[in-house]
Specification:
Shape: rod-shaped
Structural class: mainly alpha
Number of strands: 0
Strand content: under 5%
Largest sheet: none
Number of helices: 7
Radius of gyration: 38 Å
Helix content: 40-55%
């Protein structure tokens, strides 16, 4: 049997030219792409940080702890409060500012005093005035730190520096003045 030749298949010739290679990006375009990529990475890192640190308890920052003024022995007390307990607490505050603060003793070897030691020296032997000042101070402390604070000396000795005790003496002076004590 004779074989018949297979019909010829004609292939169409390409009429379109091959696509041109992409043009190089300008500097601005590359910076825009890098900025977008970095923004995505930073957002992912922020979410990861929030997830990884969500179990950590934090305390709000009290601006009175952050904003401080230099303490110098030449500080002059403010205008004294007109009420006796408030004036005593104000004098005790000034005594700690100028003479120094300590913990663990009424007076240390350098002459620095604790909160109660400053109240006692400024009361000048008036036990009633001293007791009233200590009561108002304890009330001010409990308002700020809760009822678990059992005494002024206990509160004073729980700190490593005098920033909080000084602030509490100042607040107690204002409280005593508001109560006309």
């Amino acid at each position: 049997m004779p074989t018949t030749p297979a019909p010829a298949i004609s292939h169409p010739t390409p009429t379109a030219a091959a696509p041109a290679p992409p043009a190089a990006l300008s500097l601005e375009e590359r910076l825009a792409f890098v900025n977008a990529a970095m923004t995505v990475r930073l957002e992912e890192a922020a979410v990861a940080y929030e997830v990884n640190s969500s179990h950590i308890d934090i305390e709000p920052v009290d601006l009175a702890d952050v904003v401080t003024l230099p303490l110098t022995p030449t500080l002059q007390p403010r205008t004294p409060y007109p009420t006796p307990v408030a004036a005593l607490l104000q004098r005790a505050h000034h005594r700690l500012l100028t003479g120094g603060w300590c913990s663990g003793a009424l007076v240390d070897e350098d002459g620095a005093r604790c909160m109660l030691g400053a109240i006692r020296i400024e009361a000048r032997g008036d036990r009633g005035l001293e007791g009233g000042a200590a009561a108002v101070l304890l009330d001010a402390i409990r308002r700020q730190f809760g009822d678990h604070v059992d005494s002024v000396p206990g509160f004073n000795d729980s700190w490593t520096d005098g920033r909080h005790p000084l602030r509490m003496l100042d607040q107690a002076a204002g409280l005593a003045d508001a109560r006309c004590l």
